[in-house]
Write a structure and sequence with these properties.
Helix content is 37%, strand content 21%. By secondary structure, it is of the alpha/beta class. It binds guanosine-5'-diphosphate.
Length: 346
């Protein structure tokens, strides 16, 4: 569950021709993968200035880093990774903190735009999420599917979703919800199952680890690549009208499949033996057990199936995913092999 997914606001700057050209972006949640990809994406699009904000335990959003991008190289984007661990630990434990950052935090930003008299110039992107669908009411999930969040995070994001709609309707603010399904990358936090798997497989491949444990192997997700998804964020902000979109691949894979593909990439075939908590994943070639099930990773209110339908996005903003599931798994495993080879404790 992404706790501090990026929300972006871009402010207008009037050109000589009277048209508004956006030159400044504020991105919250830059310690997460989306914030960093979005900053790089905007840089490449010629955005002159990106202000990076990360969510802080003490002061919900605190301006931490301001980078004048100019012609700066991408390396100049500083992402303080150590902070991630701290924020994650705390926010997983504290539902109230989640509500404060992911729910009321959005209201604070919208209020700031309004209070500063910027409703005509700012464009606001809300990092909405497929977690809103939780206990799914329809398959696949699209913009009109009723929400049914199943976690404090989902409930907080539900509030954020509606407060964005409210500001759009009440104050005519260009504010949009991007309902993004799971999107991964080598920058994904290691608490997420995809990165946990890619890291563990990399370690096993390098002989640094023998076995790791997972929870629900049969949970299914619609996994895309974060790079494709930040492009959707940008496209949503370039439209004439503010419209909410589902962003997804439409393809569903299980945790089990992710495990199999990741191992296959390093030349290991995983065969499953046993049932439920006794289930193990064994390497067919060596006979070694590499995967176990540990009930401590089960969730009290599991979201076991998410599949998005982003045909509206394809039709209206021309967005579709480029990276396939297979390519995503390979990229993540390769990146972790590289990382672990140089730094086994990473
Ligand atoms: P989420 O969709 O935002 O909750 O993304 P996650 O990557 O955290 O979880 C995706 C699915 O993987 C969920 O249904 C989890 O229950 C399942 N899962 C199975 N084992 C694990 C595990 O060890 N860690 C995590 N994070 N998820 C796991």
């Amino acid at each position: 569950m992404a706790q501090c997914a990026a929300a972006a606001a871009t402010s207008g700057d009037v050109n000589g021709d009277g048209k508004t050209k956006r030159k400044v972006a504020i991105i919250t949640g830059i310690t997460g993968q989306d914030g960093s990809y979005l900053a790089e994406f905007l840089l490449a699009k010629g955005m002159r200035r990106v202000i990076l904000v990360f969510c802080n335990v003490l002061t919900v959003t605190r301006l931490n880093t301001e980078i004048d991008l100019g012609n700066a190289a991408h390396d100049d984007i500083t992402i303080p990774y150590p902070t991630v661990q701290c924020v994650w630990q705390i926010s997983f434990d504290l539902a109230e903190y989640t509500a404060d950052v992911d729910g009321v935090g959005t209201l604070r930003l919208l209020d700031a735009v309004k209070t500063c008299g910027l409703t005509d110039t700012v464009r606001f992107y809300q990092a909405s999420t497929s977690e809103l669908y939780g206990k799914v009411q329809e398959i696949p999930q699209k913009e009109t599917t009723p929400f049914y969040p199943r976690s404090p995070y989902g409930a907080a994001k539900l509030y954020a979703y509606w407060i964005v709609v409210n500001f759009r309707e009440a104050y005519n603010l260009f504010a949009v919800n991007g309902i993004l399904f799971n999107h991964e990358s080598p920058r994904r936090g290691s608490n997420f199952v995809t990165r946990k798997i890619s890291r563990s497989v990399a370690k096993i491949h390098l002989g640094q680890l023998q076995c790791f444990s997972l929870g629900n192997l049969d949970s299914k997700r619609d996994w895309g690549h974060a790079k494709d998804y930040v492009e959707a964020m940008w496209l949503m902000l370039q439209q004439e009208e503010p419209i909410d979109f589902v962003i997804a691949t439409g393809e569903v894979h299980s945790v089990r499949e992710f495990v199999e593909k990741a191992f296959k990439h390093v030349g290991k075939t995983i065969v499953w033996e046993g049932k439920n908590e006794e289930e193990v994943g064994r390497c067919q070639e060596t006979g070694e057990i590499h995967v176990k099930v540990d009930p401590k990773y089960y969730r009290p209110t599991e979201v076991d199936f998410l599949q998005g339908d982003s045909s509206k996005a394809l039709k209206i903003i021309g967005w579709k995913p480029r990276v396939t599931f297979e390519e995503l798994v390979k990229e993540m495993v390769d990146a972790d092999i590289e990382l672990m080879r140089n730094n086994p404790n990473a």
